[in-house]
Fold:
Amino acid sequence: MKRCRLSLSVLVVSMLTATASAAADPAAEAQVVPPWQQGLMPLLVSLVVFAAAFAILSVKVWPVIVKALDERAKKIEAEIAAAEAARKQAKDALEEYERSLSQARAEAQKMLEETRAQQGRLAAELKAKADADLSMMRERAMKDIESAKRAALNEIYAETATLATHVATKVLGREVSAADQSRLVDESLRELSKVRSN
Structure:
């Protein structure tokens, strides 16, 4: 690339020199092909001017141009490297985000499953407790009913015994002793038990 630019500059300088020397010599326009002796001096002047221009350009201009081009190339390479690093960093960040999102989804699913399992266990425990409480309430109610039934029967038996004693006193016309009363109560209870069992 440097050689191409150098060749291009040499060509431009030589064209400018040839144009300047042709404009300075009006007789050159009249002759179609000048003799070689006439072209020797302009050739030497052109070569000297070219050499001077080449030396000045080589020493002063080309190093500045090459330095600027090198700096620009380094800057472009640095920007490309920075862009590549940013792309890699963005890719890594995206992958990390996707991993985090996947982990969060897995944890949420796990928590949901645990909650469902816990809810099922709690429901089973509550049902078992409710069944046990209901069973205890039934048993208590049955005991209360049985107890109330016995109490009612005992009251009926006592009332029946008292009535039987009063009836016996009136029928016999005499007072019934405690032993008689006890015997009558026992007989009445036996008869009542027979009637109840039938």
Residues 1-24+42-62 form one domain.
